[in-house]
C-alpha cells in the first residue's frame, strides 16, 4: 500500500493506529520509570526521578484503553470528545518539538545549550501521536453522526434516512448538490494581526532606540552573548528579527482569510497555520499567566529591568494570535475543501 493510498484510507486505520501508538508510548514511559529518567520522558529534559515517567505511563495507558473503546463502541459520541483531550495531552508532551525548528534559524541566537536529541525524538513522537489521535477522534465522531468519513458532510438527506454500506458508514444513494464552501473568516485574520501589533511595535521601538517599558542599561531585546552577528547588524539598523517574524505571522493570518490566499498552495498554508496555532496559543497563555503573577509580585522572573506590563501585555499577545490563527486556519480549510468524490 502506497503512502498516498494509506492517507486516503485513514478513517479505516486511525483507531487502530491510536491504540498501537498509545501502547508503545506508555510502554516507553513505564521503562523510563523503572530504569530512571531516560528516553526523553524526564520532565523538561532534567533528571526528576520516576514520578513524571510513571504518570506518563498511567495517562497514556489509559489513553490506549480509550482508543480500544473507540473501536468497540463506534456509536458512543462522548468517546470522541474524550479523544480530543488525549490530543491536547499529546500536544502538551510534544510542545517543545513544535518550537524546535527555531534551532535552524542560526541568525536568531547562538551559544544555546546543546539539543537533547532523545527528548526531541520523544516530543516528535508525541506530536505524531496527536495527529493519529486527531484522526481517530474525527473518524469516530463522523461514524457516530452518520456523516461521510472523508469530508464530514451529509451526502444527501438526513443521516438517519441513509442505510449503512458495506463499510459500516452511511452513504446516500442520490447525493444532492454539494453546498457552497463557506467564506473565509476575515475577522479572525484581523484579530490575529491586531494581537501581534503590541509585540511588533515594542520590539521595533527598542531596535530604533526608543525603550518604553525598559528601565535598565544597555540595549533591550538583544544580548550580544546569544544574538548572532547578523541579528546584531540588523538590530543596529532598527530591524529586530523577531519583529520580522511577527510580520510574517501577520501575513500568514491574512493569507488564510483573504481571497488572494486561495491562490497559494493549500497544504503548506494549513500546515503553517495549525503548527503556529498549536505552538503559540499555549505559549502565550503561559506567558500571560507568568506576566500577571510577576506584575502582582507573586513570582520573580528575573526581569527587574523591564516594566511589569512588558511580559503580561506584549508577550502574552501570542495567545490571542494563536487562537485567532486557529480560527483562520479552520475557516481556510473549510473554504478550500474540494468536493468529496466518495459521497
In words, what does this structure look like?
The chain has helices at residues 3-8, 10-35, 51-72, 77-93, 95-99, 117-145, 186-207, 229-236, 241-257, 266-295, 309-315, 317-335. The chain has 2 domains: 3-145, no CATH class; 186-335, no CATH class. The chain has 343 residues and is mainly α. Residues 159-169 have a biased composition (Basic and acidic residues).
Broad structural category: mainly alpha
Measured between the Cα atoms of the first and last residue, the distance is 23 Å
SS strand fraction: under 5%
Major sheet description:
none
Order of helices and strands: HHHHHHHHHHHH
Task: Work out the helicity level.
Answer: 55-70%
Total domains: 2
Mean pLDDT figure: 80
Biased composition (Basic and acidic residues): 159-169
Transmembrane segments: 20-42, 54-71, 83-108, 120-139, 238-257, 269-295, 307-328
Region (Disordered): 159-183
Keywords: Membrane, Transmembrane, Transmembrane helix
